[in-house]
Design goal:
mainly beta; 42% strand; flat
Length: 925
């Protein structure tokens, strides 16, 4: 009997709220993996059969594996010779190596196979079932009993099963059997039977089925037997695929009629309070998932309707581990049809109240963060087929067997294992970006990382190259749901530039690489358009200012509906629809963006985007659908363009309900246009360039969970469907609101897009050097470092910049000098460093202490002390003084009032962000 070792409270994980301010520290629990998952996803070296593993059991630190194979070989890359192993191998749970126990399961005619293994409660006997006629030459008939201590078959145990045995369960005195047989020992026993666990004598238990039995389990109290298989009747009572019978007589205790006729039960397992089924089927309306049922009355608790042929279920410490090739968990509000997920974990019970039934079923508890990968492999291409938990030296091991030939992308056939300790896999590197739309605040955001055995990760945000994190945030993610996390830096100053990098760390301390550096300049005034979109309550806001694939940042206030680029749309398309912004380009063939978080959308919403195109093939600009990279079967709440350039906004409420622009009201003129679609109690309305283009009394839409799409998705069945589902052109400023924007708000957005905005210029030094009183004749124009000190041995630094003129119609609103301290010890200074104009002549090649230039008397700015550690620092400068020298070559000097030196990188350095630069912000007069 496979049973859980105990229950822990189920844990449902969600995104931790992003905090504001430098001092936020939210740390994960100090465990190697995220509870309640008990195993890492890091595979351990394991000997591997040359065929398929169908069955496993364990006893006292030894794992027994049976199947259809002839030999085992060492793990990939490990020396050693192949060993004969005829359909059976015993392995050390801790090392993965074969033990001295060697059994050969054979048959004279046909192909022998071991399909089920179970160990007696006293751990002394291993029972095997399948299709075989001898074990190490001892005659048997598809069922055998093995003395574990001596690794020899018990010759006296010889019940006659004339067909394949597929399931076994054992109590102190009885072995229960499921399979394809119709007789046992010449007596009628159709598909299920019971024999004496010691002698093999047939028992009176009778539970005859009309189709094969595949699974059998005894309830923990020993009073009932749980039957699973293909059958439609048990003892002439109608019950498909699952039934409960009396353990002594086989009399039917509970029947089931709600498993589809094209689905079967492949496995049954129990824990202290429940039992669980793994199901497989084929054809339309199939049930391929898992059911959780109560032992108290055998009624259903929940049903996980993921598609993907579940082969095995194993409850362990409050978590149900399963092997399948799940490819569509849409009904569970998880991943859509697509990639196969072979190994999954979920709590055995819902935490708190269970969700309301949908289509008559309570959905299963949400999946946990345990995602080892496999492949379809050999045979039927199912992947993993069986699981077992073994313990040795206080370490628990999850063993998995099946048809697979890859585990976590590496060659490994038919057997693998995972330990309860030793998590060594680091999370993926975060993809970060930063945005600022008003003075005093920067939103740093990143796509949450993926870790195969940790769903709750700790993120550290580093500012301006500092080795000390500015903030620490925790957030949760799964492989198929990696929502954006964010942190607001509210200590920033207007007109200054900042850089950020982010790392992800799991509970075992494994840390990702630093993200690529993302930079932002804080504006000196509010940026009207994006600030209004945020103020009006956008819950998704894609500005398309991203510089790397595949992440699209969400600039909304909540900031957790980021997007994923599909097939590499073109980035940084300039100019965008709003001054100072970039757009994203789509090829009209395969490129699009989809949101990274599954959601439902009610009957009140607004969708908005800017677009520019000259296409004559139409395409979807923005919409909602139930898939991500594949065509959505359910799709509406969308705006699309016809071949002639008309715009259509539509929802589906049993039929397509649409509003469109006029016959000659077309917008494929290669100019930027603003389009908005709203739905609310008053119906649906389409706006283009701030004008109402029509309304319709449609107050409802499709009920399904899905994802937002920009640039393309399915349009099959919609009126005036264009040639292409995909849009060819540019998109900018895409937003979704949970409210209905008014016409005044829509018009305001259109007008604000024309409002002037700040522009930022960064000007790097064209030349820099320093002078050293201690070496009065030396030049330092090629040095990678610069230095400043006011007394003792004097250091002064000089920098030259080619300043731009102010853009037409704009003035300089702020200026700052940005430099980065070097990595040498004590690079910072406790003294005040001043920035002054250089009035004399100098050059990096010739200037020495003896020929140092004259300096101006009035500082342009200063910084009162610089901490040790390599980091970027900003010095605000006098705006009027810098304005006076715009459009010229201008030199600045750095001086100090004390003896504590400052060391910083020069333009000769290769350090990231090392070159000193001026940050100039220009804006309207």
């Amino acid at each position: 009997m496979r049973r859980s070792r105990g229950l822990t409270a189920a844990l449902v994980l969600s995104l931790a709220g992003a905090g504001t301010g430098i001092g936020l520290v939210l740390m994960p629990q100090a465990s190697a993996i995220t509870a309640p998952v008990a195993f890492t996803a890091d595979q351990l070296p394991t000997w591997q059969p040359d065929g398929i593993v169908w069955a496993m059991a364990q006893a006292e630190g030894t794992v027994f594996a049976g199947g259809t194979f002839s030999a085992v070989r060492p793990p990939e890359g490990v020396a050693g010779a192949e060993r004969e192993a005829v359909n059976f191998v015993a392995l050390d749970a801790a090392t993965g190596n074969p033990t001295s126990c060697k059994l050969a399961f054979t048959i004279g005619d046909g192909t022998a196979t071991v399909r089920t293994l179970v160990v007696s409660k006293d751990k002394k006997t291993l029972y095997a079932g399948g299709y075989f006629g001898a074990v190490n030459g001892t005659p048997v008939s598809s069922v055998a009993a093995i003395d574990i201590a001596s690794c020899t078959p018990k010759a006296a145990f010889h019940p006659g099963f004339p067909a394949t045995v597929r399931g076994l369960a054992v109590t102190d005195d009885t072995l229960y059997v499921a399979g394809d047989f119709n007789t046992v020992e010449g007596q009628t026993r159709q598909r299920f039977a019971a024999v004496d666990a010691s002698s093999g004598a047939l028992k009176p238990f009778k539970a005859d089925a009309d189709e094969p039995g595949r699974a059998i389990e005894v309830t923990p109290d020993g009073k009932n037997v749980l039957l699973g298989g293909d059958f439609f009747t048990i003892n002439n009572a109608n019950s498909h695929a699952l039934a409960v019978v009396d353990a002594m007589s086989g009399a039917v205790k509970k029947t089931y009629s709600n498993i589809p006729s094209n689905s079967v039960v492949k496995d049954i397992s129990t824990d202290d309070t429940g039992f669980y089924t793994g199901n497989e089927g084929s054809g339309g309306g199939v049930f391929d998932g898992r059911i959780g049922l109560r032992l108290s009355d055998f009624t259903e608790k929940w049903r996980d309707r993921c598609l993907g042929a579940t082969q095995f279920v194993l409850p362990y410490e409050g978590v149900l581990y399963s092997s399948s090739h799940a490819h569509d968990c849409s009904t569970e509000q998880e991943f859509p049809d697509g990639k196969r997920h072979f190994l999954l974990a979920q709590p055995t019970n819902h935490e708190g109240s269970a969700p309301a039934p949908v289509d008559g079923f309570v959905r299963g508890p949400g999946k946990l963060g345990w995602h080892p990968t496999a492949n379809d492999g050999l045979g039927e291409g199912i992947g993993p087929r069986v699981m077992a938990v073994a313990e040795k030296n206080d370490v628990k091991y999850m063993w998995v067997g099946g048809e697979f030939t890859l585990i976590n992308g590496k060659a490994q056939q038919a057997l693998t294992r995972f330990a309860s300790t030793g998590d060594v896999g680091a999370p993926t590197t975060p993809v970060a970006s930063a945005s600022s739309v008003k003075p005093g605040e920067v939103q740093v955001r990143w796509r949450t990382s993926y870790d195969a055995d940790d769903s709750k990760l700790t993120y550290r945000i580093y500012r301006n190259g500092s080795a000390t994190p500015a903030a620490t945030v925790t957030a949760s993610s799964l492989e198929w749901e990696r929502p954006q996390a964010s942190w607001n830096d509210t200590t920033v100053k207007a007109g200054q530039s900042y850089s950020y990098r982010v790392t992800a760390t799991d509970a075992a301390g494994n840390t990702s690489a630093l993200s690529a550096t993302t930079k932002v300049t804080v504006p000196t005034s509010v940026q009207s358009y994006p600030n209004q979109v945020r103020t009006d309550g956008a819950e998704l806001y894609w500005r398309y200012d991203d510089v790397v694939s595949p992440y699209v940042a969400d600039s909304s206030v909540s900031g957790n509906r980021s997007g994923i680029q599909v097939n590499a749309p073109a980035l940084k398309q300039s100019p965008g629809a709003v001054p100072g912004s970039n757009a994203m380009g789509f090829n009209g063939k395969s490129q699009k963006v989809h949101s990274d978080r599954r959601q439902t959308v009610g009957n009140t919403f607004t969708i908005e985007t800017w677009f520019k195109t000259n296409t004559t093939r139409g395409g979807k600009l923005i919409g909602f659908g139930n898939n991500t990279t594949r065509n959505s079967g359910s799709n509406d709440r969308h705006i699309y363009m016809t071949n002639t350039g008309r715009l259509v906004f539509g929802v589906y409420n049993g039929s397509t309900r649409t509003v469109s622009t006029g016959l000659f009201d077309t917008y494929n003129d290669n100019k930027w246009h603003h389009v908005v679609g709203t739905q609310g109690p008053g119906g649906i309305t389409l706006y283009v360039d701030g004008q109402n283009k029509g309304s319709l009394n449609a107050t409802s839409n499709g009920t399904y969970a899905g994802y937002w799409h920009a640039g393309g998705d399915n349009l099959s069945g919609w009126p005036t469907r264009p040639t292409s589902n995909f849009f060819a052109g540019q998109l900018d400023e895409t937003a979704v609101y949970p409210t209905t924007l008014t016409q005044a708000q829509v018009k305001n957005h259109f007008d604000l897009a024309k409002a002037p905005t700040d522009t930022v210029s960064t000007v790097k030094t064209t030349e820099d050097t320093y002078i050293n009183q201690g070496a009065p004749s030396s030049t330092y124009g090629t040095s990678t470092s610069l230095a400043v000190r006011g007394s003792g041995s004097l250091y002064e630094t000089y920098m030259r910049f080619d300043l731009p003129a102010a853009p037409a119609g704009q003035v300089l609103k702020s200026a700052s000098l940005q430099f980065k301290t070097s990595t040498q010890a004590s690079a910072g200074t406790a003294n005040t460093v001043s920035v002054v104009p250089v009035t004399g002549t100098w050059s990096g090649a010739s200037t020495t202490f003896k020929t140092k230039p004259a300096l101006g008397a009035t500082p342009l700015g200063s910084i009162a002390g610089v901490p040790d550690g390599s980091a970027v620092h900003n010095v605000p400068l006098d705006t009027a003084a810098v304005t006076a020298v715009l459009g010229s070559s201008y030199s600045l000097g750095l001086t100090s009032n004390g003896s504590d030196p400052l060391w910083l990188w020069s333009s000769e350095s290769t350090a990231a962000e090392g070159t000193p630069q001026l940050v100039l912000t220009f804006g309207a007069q």
